[in-house]
Amino acid sequence: MPGGTLAESVRRFYDAIARRSPRLAFVNYGFVDLPDQPPANPNLFSLCRRLYETVLEPFPVATGLVVEVGCGRGAGAELLLDDRPDLRYVGLDLSSEHLVLTRKRLAPRPFTSVIMADAGRLPLTTGVVDLLYSIEAAQHFEEPGRFYQEASRLLCPGGWCLLAGLWHSTQLP
Hints:
Radius of gyration: 16 Å
CATH class: Alpha Beta
Strand order of the largest sheet: 3-2-1-4-5
Shape: globular
Number of domains: 1
Oligomer: single chain
Strand content: 15-25%
């Protein structure tokens, strides 16, 4: 990869976007259920909110440890914690600029932390995570297979791993 690894390129890209547009809540594409009637006046925030709601809706637990890999600016975490304030949350991201924005967004909330980390080397204890999720970030992972190993290592018995990403069907595990 010119100029370094994929992880370094992703970090530089998202740091630059964060500096240029610090007020953006999300850096996702969002979600519209196409068989239904599309929203009359969609905006990026509502589409991204719908994406997070759709992915996280199946997770039945209101307490426990949640880890988001590729936490971005923390808007998705904010949505999750609004509905489930007793969760403990750890956000992981490569972008130091995103982590600054996430810390600001989540500062008033207890039981939250954000850490700079690569998806293939997650700095957490084995078997303690109730939910590990990643929304539109996994396509940037340098070593997807290593991420899946790490996710499996971190999840407690009965833990959940929820992913939403932009992959071609030939790239799916």
